[in-house]
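Deliverable D4.2, example record:
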Amino acid sequence: MNRYFAICPRGLEELLSDELRALGGAELRSTHGGVFFAGDWSTCYRANLESRIATRILWHIVKGPYAREEDIYRLAVRQLWPNHFAVSRTMRVVTTAIRCPLKSLDFVTLRVKDAVCDRFREDCGERPDIRTRNPDVSVHVFLSESECTLYLDTSGQPLWQRGLRKASVDAPLKENLAAGILQLSGWRPGTPLVDPMCGSGTFLLEAVQIALDRAPGIDRGFAFELLASFEAMNWASIRQAAEARCKAPEPLDIRGYDSDDRALRASRRNLQEAGFGGIVTVDRGDLLDTQPLTDHGIMVANPPYGERIGELDELAAFYPRLGSALKRHWAGWNCFFFTADLRLPRLVGLKPSRKTPLFNGPLECRLFEFRMVAGSNRKL
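Output generated by the structure prediction step:
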């Protein structure tokens, strides 16, 4: 049985743990930004193919103590890297650390690269080529205060890259964070869903894939296919089962609106090229004027954070109008706003029924839930 570490956006660790358990993961343990788990290669393949939350799946190679860079070199050079991937594969080394006492992570990266290449020279008489962008194989080094862990990446490109979003707008939400927000909202297929600020359509694309039971990695390749341990027949069977499970596209009660024509074009293009163009409705609309077509459902929105000069003042003027629009039009709906602007509830004038801390990259955010109970708000 192998050991793995699945990376995810901070705040989604428990969702990822539940997901990995359902995919066959064992000995699960959550930590900040990810989940440790154990499993065979089938578990690894399914995690890469099926996880909507993970950013990448790392295969644990070895862990050992260190006090200086040469300890890390010795740990790395002892590993049988030629047993894991061919010398013809291009490679890179990626180093991350928490409370590491060493002065230079770049030097650690260099020494691990030297160790891997030295091992190949000793065993094969030649060394792999280094490629810092889009390599075949990535060795990941994680340093704590006194321990070094070496991993091999089984994912390749980050798993949030589903291969569906061809057109984009400013600061798009990553797909795995959007999928996590949809899960936290409690949305299920069959429940009406509206994104009134849909941008390039990330929430819409994720919701459609969930509704069609479509594995998020079905249209892409993975780094594990280039490792020496790759079980091609096993992987083909897992992938075929996922393909057979996909439901045929049909119209869904999922709607996106945006007041920006560029965003509308991007959203429509992404849905169309993904094969979902006829099953999701995308229209021009302003959040303050948009009205639902049903008396209940889930709204998810990722409004601007106010990161540029002048935007905070604009948002301060917008939020009270948003609160009025929610009370006027959205009674019976659960409305979720994902933002780094923690003033939102106070300026909207509504008390959130739930606020979930999440991170968008390094940026601390909140997912605010407002339950717009029918009949409890007077018409404004």
